[in-house]
Give the backbone structure.
Amino acid sequence: MALYEHVFLARQDVTAQQVEELTTRFKGVIEANGGSVGKTEYWGVKSLTYRINKNRKAHFTLLNIDAPSAAVQEMERQMRIDEDVLRFLTLRVEEHEDGPSAMLQKRDRDERERGERGFGGDRGFGGDRPRRPRERDEAQGEEMV
């Protein structure tokens, strides 16, 4: 059997629970056709670069699949029919990565950085923003005309 990485995007107005139900349904299709799903990652709601069917955001989910090609084709056929699935992409890979994917590692890193900087980011409330010319001249006692 071949190894695949499969990512699908679900509409933004479905709930996370409905996305989980979609994921279990597609896992069931793979398992019914003689395959298995090794890892499932829900990446959350992310902004899209361009609108897809009037949606600006989507729920992203990754599946690591070990299945024959017929199982993957059947899952993709059902995704085309489902109106909650906006897009999907299946890639054949030599081996699956251990541990969290790059997207989850990025999210964890971003959360740690936000926690270290505190409220307002590392700039605070504009404290290191350069003064405008008028403010600079007034501070020196000269008025601009």
In short: Residues 2-104 form a domain with the Alpha-Beta Plaits fold (CATH 3.30.70.60). The chain has one domain: 2-104. The first helix runs from residue 16 to 32. The chain has a mean pLDDT of 84.
